[in-house]
Amino acid sequence: MRDVAVIGVGLTKFGELWDKSFRQLISEAGAKAILDSGIEGKDIDAMYVGSMSSGRFVGQEHIGALVADTSGFSFMHIPATRVEGACASGGLAFREGYFSIASGMNDIVVVGGIEKMNDVGGSSATETLATAADQEWEAFFGVTFPGLYAMIALRHMHEYGTTKEQLAQVAVKNHKNGALNPYAQYQKEITIEQAMNSTMVAYPLGLMDCSPVTDGAASVVLCAAEKARQYCQKPIKIIGSGQGSDTLALHSRRDICTLDATVHAANMAYKQAKINPKDIDLAEVHDCFTIAEICAIEDLGFVKKGEGGKAVENKITTLDGTMPVNTSGGLKSKGHPVGATGVAQIVEIVTQLRGEAGRRQVKDARIGLTHNVGGSGATCVVHLLEAV
Ligand code: COA
Question: Whole-model pTM?
Answer without folding.
Answer: 0.98
